[in-house]
Every structure is written in C-alpha cells, then in structure tokens.
Amino acid sequence: MGLYGAYDTYMSPLVRDWPILLPMVAVYGAVQVTAQWIYPKVFGTAFQKLARDDQNNVIVRTVSVFNGLLMVGSAVCFVTNLRDHGYVLDTDVYREIPYYRFFRVAIVAYFVWDIFVCFAYKWEAQWKVHAFASLVGAYLLSFPYSDQYGSYFTGMFELSNVPFHISSIIRTLRTTAFSSLATICDVVFAFMFLIIRVVGGSVVTFRWLQLMYKLLMDTRSDDKVVVHDEASIIVSMVLLSIIQSLQYVWLFEIMKQGYRRFVVADDSNADDQVSVSKRKKKE
C-alpha cells in the first residue's frame, strides 16, 4: 500500500535516470580498463609479478578510490543540507536535496559494477551480500526519498573508503617508498571508520529507521496513506540494518588487524632487538 503503484516505485527511477545510470556504469568500467592498461607501465615488474588475484585486487580498489573521491560531492550535499537545517536531520523524506540527483544515480551505477566484480572475481559471501544490499537499497532510495539520509551513506561512507583502498594498493604493490603513506592511510581510515561508519552510521541509521517506522505506523493507525510504497520502505529498512550490522563485523576485523600489525609487530621487533643485544654481548 502506498501513494504510488509498482511502476512508479520500481520502474520510473530506471526510466527517468538511465541517461545518467548507463554512462556512469561505463565510466566505472572505463576506469577499471584504464587501470589494467596503465599499471604495468607505471609500476613495471612490481605489478607484473603479482598473482592475478592481487592484480585484480589493485585494479578494483583503484575504481573504489575513484568512486570515493567522486562521492565527495555527495558528502558536500549532506553537510550543506544539514547546515541549512540547523544541524538537525530533516523529517521531510520526500524533499530532494539540490544537486544530489547525479550522486544518487551514480552510486547505483557503482554498485551495479560492484555486483559484477564480486561474482566475476569470486569474492567472499559478505562482500556479495554488501554489494547486493547496497545496490537494492540505493536503487529503492532513487524513487527518490530520504535524500537527507541517503547522502550520508553515499557520501560520508564512500569517502571513508579512500584511505583504506590506497593503503591496500600500496601494501599489495610492496612499494616501500610509500610505506609511511600506507601507515598514515591506515590510521586515517581507522579513525574515519569509527567516527563515520560506526558512530555516525549508528546515529543516522537509528534516526532513519525510527522515522520510517513512525511513518508506516501513521499510515496504519490513521488509515491515511503518507508513504509512497510500504513494501519498498520495509525492504530498505531491512537492507540498511544489514549494511549497518556489517560495519560492526568489520570493526572487529579492523581491531584484530590493527592488533596484529602494530602490537604483535612491535613485540616481535622488541624480541629481535633483545636477541641481537644478547648475541653482541656473547661476542
């Protein structure tokens, strides 16, 4: 039940936005092909000696960096809209944010490309779940509704990925000249992940779920339709809950990796130094 039928809810966004959607899918594909062509020339044997999976990993992460930088525009839309409303999340879910349409559609194109990559390269199930949930969720939001909340996830979330992918690219290529940059990116990513995805994501997700639940209940209790489509909203609520839950799983993984990289590595280095000192004393 809703103010609009199935065609308006599920087909109209595609019919309306395909002049942006299809070219952007092609753009992401073009970035991927360009990276495949240019990396062997730029990095030479450092790239060519990598296993095929590692080469694909570097290329895919390059596209993700491109998307993260592109979505800076979406983050600007979110921050600007938040400032214009006194730094309070808006409750008018059907009010569009100026200039946000391009980014709303571009992120759908990115997840179309992401789905292809997940299955083409046989990535783990959690990445496929994330890509599928993100694609369906982003497409349903392109009705459009919830721009004020969607721009946070398309903008701030994707922006936080940039240092993570840059660090991974550097470490995969084993470019020692940029090892310090990789470490800086790791620290920046950990901070951004905690603030943007865990803390901020929890707040925005809870606020949006609360708002959607209220609108759905108002529709039921007052016998007055106030939403465009109940089914798409419920699906979006489930998918966003899954995506936000994945952030907590990944937080745990980040903490484990950070412990191995910084704490365990420091302990190993200290043990090595002690061993060297003992050998020198014996000599």
TrEMBL record:
Membrane topology: Multi-pass membrane protein
TM region positions: 20-39, 59-82, 102-122, 185-211, 231-251
Location in the cell: Membrane
Domain TLC: 59-256
Highest taxon of source: Eukaryota
InterPro entries the UniProt entry points to: TLC-dom (IPR006634), TLCD (IPR050846)
GO biological process: lipid homeostasis
Main location: membrane
Classification via PANTHER family: CT120 PROTEIN (PTHR13439), TOPOISOMERASE I DAMAGE AFFECTED PROTEIN 4 (PTHR13439:SF0)
UniProt protein name: TLC domain-containing protein
Lineage of producing organism: Eukaryota, Discoba, Euglenozoa, Kinetoplastea, Metakinetoplastina
